[in-house]
Specification:
Blueprint (H helix, E strand, L loop, with lengths): L5 H23 L6 H8 L3 H5 L5 H15 L12 H13 L19 H6 L2 H25 L7 H20 L6 H11 L20 E6 L6 E2 L4 E2 L6 E7 L6 H7 L6 E6 L3 H22 L9 E4 L4 H6 L9 E7 L2 E7 L3 H6 L3
Parallel strand pairs: 4-5, 5-6
Antiparallel strand pairs: 1-8, 2-3, 4-7, 7-8
Helix pairs in contact: 1-2, 1-4, 4-11, 5-8, 5-9, 5-11, 7-8, 7-11
Length: 354
């Protein structure tokens, strides 16, 4: 039998730890779960668990992220042809993931009930979580705009829909049986017609940094687009923004500022990949698992999102050291990086070149 490589051994060990942690969280709840018990379930020492994850919260995020990314899509049905129909299907898919009234306190369906309280307990997770939810609103808003271009910017409407659904999710966990799913779906459908008079003209963009005109080769490593759950297509032109999790929603500045037809890619990085990278995977997967079957492919957000916990794609952009405050964007033409901008407003600055 061929010997496993070091990477394969590490991958198998990580999978054992995750499986053991899922069992422990399900049987005892997140609060009462113990690292020693997880180690025993996995057949490892306590140090063996910590060599893969920095702590219990990181393990919790990783378990939920694995479940979210491996959850099968809802049963196939025709996607919505209008914004109202699409939001109705989106809401049904979202509510279908919530714990049922019949679920016991320790059922797998209630595994995520401690997620928001755990995030709220620490500012290190609150700020990234808020930015990731804003990114969710950008993605859903762009999909709504594709279905109804004449309606203008719809990110505020999308945020209102997500606020409604997030609240329903918290109540479904805290007060089983209280949430009327039909009423929630109906409300989301009606929100499609909400007019918030959204105008995209943030005054701070007037103070964005000036882009630097350069001429450097563009040779990115292979990457995965989480929006379409497919390999990132090779492109010799576009805007690529490397964003720490405190700046994730800034990608809308690139989308609004880029010339028509120029593809935009958000590369999500973090200074704490052992914990926050899985939180980012979780939040985006929860949205996209519901969005893809609800909207026709032609209406999927014209935005690519890449999780880059290793920093490989960020390095190709020229960012060697990342943090949660990172914001660097480049403009690419004919396989060359022709402009770069760094700091607050970099997405707008790089995207608006030419």
């Amino acid at each position: 039998m061929d010997r496993l490589s070091r990477a394969e051994t590490q991958q198998r060990t990580r999978a054992r730890v995750l499986a053991a942690a899922r069992d422990e969280f399900t049987s005892r709840g997140y609060r009462d779960a113990k690292i020693d018990a997880i180690a025993e379930r996995a057949g490892l020492t306590r140090g063996g668990v910590y060599s893969n994850f920095p702590g219990k919260r990181a393990l919790y995020f990783a378990v939920l992220a694995e479940d979210a990314t491996s959850t099968p899509a809802p049963p196939p049905s025709a996607p919505g042809r209008t914004a109202r129909e699409a939001l109705g299907r989106f809401a049904r898919a979202w509510l279908g993931r919530l714990p049922l009234m019949a679920d016991g306190e320790r059922s797998p369906g209630r595994l995520s009930v401690d997620l928001v309280p755990e995030i709220l307990a620490d500012e290190r997770t609150r700020v990234p979580y808020a930015q990731l939810l804003r990114l969710d609103a950008v993605l859903l808003g762009l999909a709504l705009e594709q279905l109804h271009p004449a309606a203008g910017r719809r990110v505020g409407v999308a945020g209102t829909v997500l606020t409604h659904l997030q609240g329903a999710g918290r109540l479904a966990a805290a007060a089983p049986g209280f949430v009327d799913e039909f009423a929630v779906v109906g409300a989301c459908e009606r929100l499609a017609g909400l007019d918030l008079e959204e105008v995209w003209d943030p005054p701070y963009l007037a103070h964005a940094p000036r882009p630097r005109l350069i001429d450097e080769p563009w040779s990115p490593p292979p990457a995965h687009d989480t929006v379409r759950d497919a390999p990132l297509p090779e492109a010799d032109s576009g805007v690529v923004a490397v964003l720490g999790l405190h700046r994730a929603s800034a990608i809308e500045e690139a989308v609004r500022s880029a010339p028509p037809g120029v593809p935009v890619t958000a590369v999500l990085v973090t200074g704490a990949p052992d914990e926050l990278a899985d939180l980012a995977r979780l939040v985006l997967a929860e949205l996209l698992t519901c969005l893809r079957p609800a909207f026709p492919p032609a209406a999927w957000p014209d935005l690519r999102v890449v999780h880059d916990p290793s920093g490989a794609l960020a390095a190709a952009v020229g960012v060697e050291v990342v943090s949660d405050a990172t914001e660097t964007a480049v403009h690419i033409r004919s396989g060359r990086i022709v402009a770069r901008a760094d700091g607050f407003g970099a997405c707008h600055a790089a995207a608006s070149v030419g």
